[in-house]
Specification:
Structural class: alpha/beta
Pfam family, one: Methyltransf_25
Distance between the termini: 32 Å
Number of strands: 7
Shape: globular
CATH superfamily: Vaccinia Virus protein VP39
CATH class: Alpha Beta
GO molecular function, one term: methyltransferase activity
CATH architecture: 3-Layer(aba) Sandwich
Number of domains: 1
InterPro entries: Methyltransf_25, SAM-dependent_MTases_sf
Radius of gyration: 17 Å
Helix content: 40-55%
Largest sheet: 7 strands, mixed
Order of helices and strands: HHHEHEHEHEHEHHEHHE
CATH topology: Rossmann fold
Number of helices: 11
Keywords: Methyltransferase, Transferase
Strand content: 15-25%
Strand order of the largest sheet: 3-2-1-4-5-7-6
Protein name: Methyltransferase type 12
Length: 226
């Protein structure tokens, strides 16, 4: 199953499970002092950014590759939702036809096939950015307990790439999300979409992991580029 498919599958549940993503969206917007009027939201999901923008704007283009998320996204005369995959260079050719003053992306770009290509494409638009990317120490203890390598980009590599393509600030924030029990924790991982359908453990291995996981919380690491 592709990443986009899982986010669509759990789109109706996503609003109940994206607690950390909501916090990330709030912090990302705190870096945007200019109150831009024409905004691109890349990997918009079900509209967390659109719901949280407090200033008046002329146009918000919301782009996502999960149709289920776009269906849930707020609609208005100032919001245009379009299907698009930021891994597809053709999307950026399309975006060059629009006049944006700001690019936002929260909790999406960690699923880039090639982060450098994405940053290179964003840089060609010559527009200020505010990006939030989940990084390798997300679920750190879970991966260590399972003996798995992290799925996501590490912060050093991400920082090196953003220095190459942007004149931006770089800040890393750690979050924790507590659970009453391990079963609820693993249900969250599945229904929040953050597992991205990368089911690398067998049922037996997953059961063992649930028994051995030593914490009552999940760890999240997010890099903000702004």
């Amino acid at each position: 199953m592709k990443v986009s498919s899982e986010f669509s599958k759990y789109a109706m549940h996503y609003g109940s499970y994206n607690v950390i993503q909501q916090k990330v969206a709030d912090k990302l917007l705190s870096f945007v002092a200019s109150k831009p009027k024409n905004i691109l939201d890349l990997g918009c999901g079900n509209g967390a950014m659109a719901k949280k923008i407090s200033w008046k704007y002329n146009k918000l283009m919301a782009v996502d590759f999960a149709p289920g998320m776009l269906e849930l996204h707020p609609k208005s005369e100032n919001i245009e939702c379009i299907y698009g995959n930021f891994n597809d260079a053709n999307l950026f050719e399309l975006l060059k036809e629009y006049n944006f003053d700001y690019i936002l992306s929260a909790s999406a770009l960690q699923w880039a096939d090639d982060m450098e290509k994405i940053f290179e494409q964003l840089q060609t638009l010559h527009i200020p950015v505010a990006l939030a990317v989940f990084t390798a120490n997300t679920f750190e203890t879970l991966y260590k307990t399972a003996g798995l390598e992290p799925l996501l980009i590490n912060t050093d590599k991400l920082n090196a790439l953003q220095k190459k393509y942007f004149n931006a600030n770089f800040e890393v924030v750690h979050y924790k999300l507590e659970f009453d029990n391990v079963r609820d924790m693993f249900r969250y991982i599945k229904k929040s979409g953050v597992s991205a359908s990368r089911n690398v453990l067998s049922y037996k291995e997953m059961k063992k992991l649930m028994q051995e996981y030593p914490l009552n919380y999940l760890e999240f690491e997010v890099a903000f580029i702004y």
